[in-house]
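Late entry, written up from scratch paper. The run itself happened at the end of the previous shift, but nothing got recorded in the book at the time, so transcribing now.
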Amino acid sequence: MIGILCVIIIYDNAAFSVILQSISDAYLQVSAFVFAALYIFYALEKLFNINALKLLANKQWEVPFAAFLGAIPGCGGAIVVVTQYVKGRQSFGALTAALIATMGDAAFLLIAREPLTGMMIIIIGFVVGCVFGMLVNALHGVDFMRGEEAQQSVISSDDDTLPVSPALLKIVPWLDRIWLLWMIPGVIFAILLAIQFAPDGAMAYIMLILGGLGGVLCWVMYILMGQQEEMQMMLQHQQETVPYQMTLRNFIDDTNFVTVWVLLAFLLFDVTIYLTNFDLRILFDTIAIFVPLMAILVGFIPGCGPQILVTTLYLNGFIPLSALFGNAISNDGDALFPALALAKKPAVIATLYSAVPALILAYGYYFLVE
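Output as recorded:
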């Protein structure tokens, strides 16, 4: 992606201003609010000291508790349910409920930009997860596929920690300090933009440069840490629980992750419109009836990145709320990675099951409301 942008700038110098503006908009319109949303939710988790294993131990209420953990913004709660299912401690209905309820890291972005819509989708995901999780258990029984593939799929490791580059260990703390210092004016400018403050002259230029450099900093730090984060995620099943008290390092990484995917979406749309003079809204309006289905299919892709792109499309008015409903129900976020690694067949079936409520909700809203 970086190489493509460089080629565009070389052949069209005017494109640089478009690219810089997109990066700045992504940082000032998203990063600061995602930072705030992450802080609030992690603080609440620490305050209430949620004990995931204790909740899931109650077999009578395991499905609602699994849906509750899945509905918590981020992927940690859903990953807890996945690890417990693999160990044979949860029913297939509980697994299905958690995967349906989770919206992954896209929930942070939605809550940051549209809090009421975000909370509504979280509640809908929880309710739908409970209902379909119970239906799955009623249809198949609580022992259906319990612990299947758990033994042969376990990833082995002699050490719970992964090797980290010594150079990276020296660089990252300094980058973290710069990141935090840069976020302070970023939050101030983001609030000004949110209350419809229209900067001009020197102020507009300062905001453009600060946002552009802030976005680039998030991108650089994401690239430095991205590969190691993916490996850590694959080893999380070895832990008894996924910790909710996030360290500052993980806190920064989560903000960078969401920022980078939103930044990619901004660049994709703005650069495409600049180079082709074609508004992508026209394309989505032309195939409007298929957009919810496309969003549901994107939800089947493992990971939170593609789902953040869908949420960004909604927030920028490219796709309707019905498409966001479908994607929120069908997507499993990062929880699908350990699920596929440890119990491939149950994970695939549970993901396919999520398409049923996703189609019902998305197209029900599309035809009845939109």
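The first helix runs from residue 2 to 11.
(Scratch paper discarded after transcription.)
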